[in-house]
Structures are given as C-alpha cells and as structure tokens.
Sequence to fold (386 residues):
Amino acid sequence: MHPEFEAYLRTHTNLTPDVIRNISDLAVTRTLRRNDCIFSAGEICRHKVFVVSGMLRTFSESADGSEHILQFSPENNWALDVESYDKQVPSMVSLGAVEPTKVLYWHKADFNTLLSTIPQFRSFADQIIARNIYYSRQRMLMMLSATPEEKYEDFVREFPRYLLRLPLRMIAAYLGISLKTLTRIRHAQLQRS
Amino acid sequence: MHPEFEAYLRTHTNLTPDVIRNISDLAVTRTLRRNDCIFSAGEICRHKVFVVSGMLRTFSESADGSEHILQFSPENNWALDVESYDKQVPSMVSLGAVEPTKVLYWHKADFNTLLSTIPQFRSFADQIIARNIYYSRQRMLMMLSATPEEKYEDFVREFPRYLLRLPLRMIAAYLGISLKTLTRIRHAQLQRS
Fold:
C-alpha cells in the first residue's frame, strides 16, 4: 500500500480502485539520503521511479567536476533516463537526491506489463511523456534566446516552490549560468524591490 | 504515388507494399521556395510533414529580429511543432524552408487513422519520437556544459552533410552562439589545419 501514490493516480486518472491497487502493489519503496543516487552515469537505468516526497535531480558532471542539471523531479513526479531505460544501455547522466527523498520504483518488465494490459494507464503515461517533450522544447528555446536575467525570471515564475529548497549552485547548474552571474542577478533584483 | 517516401518506408520498416501504398496515398505534395513557411509562430500546426528533398528549420524570432533554431529537418526526416499539433493550439515556432524543398503532408485526422489501424506504423512513429527525445536531452546537456568550440565540433561531427548547405548565421542560431564567435572558431580551426 502506497497511499500518496494511490491518491496521485486517483487525482490524475479515472482508473478504478482495483486497478490503482494493482499498479501500486508492484512498486517497491526506497528511501534516499541527500546526495544518494538511484543510478550514476555509466550505469543502466532499470526502473521507473516516482517521487513520493523530497526531490531528485538528473545531472551530469564535466571532467572538471562542474555539475549540469537536466531536470528536477519533486514529489508527484516521475524520473528516469529515458534512453538508458528504453534501450538498457549505460546512462550518460546520474539521478540523485537533492534532499531526503522517498521514491517508489517498478522493474521495467512489471511496468511494461502494466502499460500493455491497462490502456488507460498507457495513455496517462503517454500524456506525461508529451508534457515532458513540450517542456524540453520550451526550455531549449529559452536557452537559445534568453538572457541570464530572463532565464532566472522564467525559473522563478515556473517553479516558485523550488526556490527555497534548492542551493543556488543547483539553480545555476540548471539554468546554464555561472553561480557568480546568478548571485549578481539576485542581488540586482533585491535592490530593485 | 510518392516513390521517395515509399522507398524510405521500405528501408526503415517491414510494412507490406499494400500498406505502404495506403499510407502514401493519403499524402499531399507541396513545394516550397527558400524562406517559405509551412506555418508561422501564432498559427496552428495542422499536418504531419515529411521532407522529400531540401531542408526545413524549426525556428523562433526574438523581438529584436534575431532567429533561434530548434531543429533542422533535411530529406527523409519528419517535421512538426509537437505541442501545437497535439493540442491544436497556436505554435510558438515557425517551420520554414532553408532551401527549395519538397514535402509531403498528412492531415491530422488521416494520420491518426493510419496510426490506430496499422500497429506497426504506430510503433515506427513511436521510435522516431523516442529518437527525438534522446537527441533533445543530448543537445540540452551539450548546451549546459559545452564551450562554443565544443558545440561547433559536435555539430560538425553529427551533421557533416549540413555544413555546406547552411548559411553560417543559421548554424550560429542553432548552436546558441553569436555569428562573431562562430566565425572566430572557424578561423582558428582553419589556421590550425
């Protein structure tokens, strides 16, 4: 029994209680401390992961140790490296906890069975993939066209609830700007307000 | 009859000649001059588009008139704005021809019928979507972590055949660097070689 996950499915789908229980029963719980990784770059992403509480980040590290963040996944979101999961090849990114985090995960074979036997769950999963695609395109356009100030303002608008939960260096690593630039932007904003 | 498209499907799928003809028969041909647009930002993307010859680019324009390029789609590739097409809402980007281009297009209702009645075509379409997702993640990582030099080298490696077909300003607009920086990088490379 995973009450938070079952509440999430009740809110976002019309699946019957039996089907929800069926999906939930195949999940395994895992608790992560801050900085624990579900998988690291070079390993294979073998599970679908749902964040019950806390927050994960998908990131890569450059040779010089600097971190680049592809995605934040807070509670009630899914996380995985899609290419590694689909093809079962080593991932180029790591999936780690930003803060103490509780996740559920499903083995790929189990999850595939759920998708193929529950068409309504399949179409819900397709919607989530589509939303991720829209967001990626949006973010790519932002990266190509926006100034650092605009990138930060967009982040504040999109994710107001993340601001207090994330160290500044991670926000900078997500926006693709230096910590120094981010600090300067925030300082200028404070002075204006 | 669209022989190039039918050859493309024969190469990439195991669909029977009858099914291939069925898909092909629903397509409409359109010829574009350089800079013609299939749709512009603010319009709705109503068709699936396949590039028979030539090249399209998906782009947006900033208020100051500068162009940002999300994607190039040369011959034997598909192009659309996925969010506008899925939801039939105005697109944030435009789809225009880089050079004289011949495309085929399908009305959304026709294409959906094909997808739902030909499972093998559906799974082929899913593969193409997956490949786009992998590539987007890859490109996002590159944007976050790479220097302008690395971005350009990666582009040359990935798309050697595009180099001679694209004006430098479009390569710069795709890489998210200024034309001046791109010119400097190319100049430095020429001097080294």
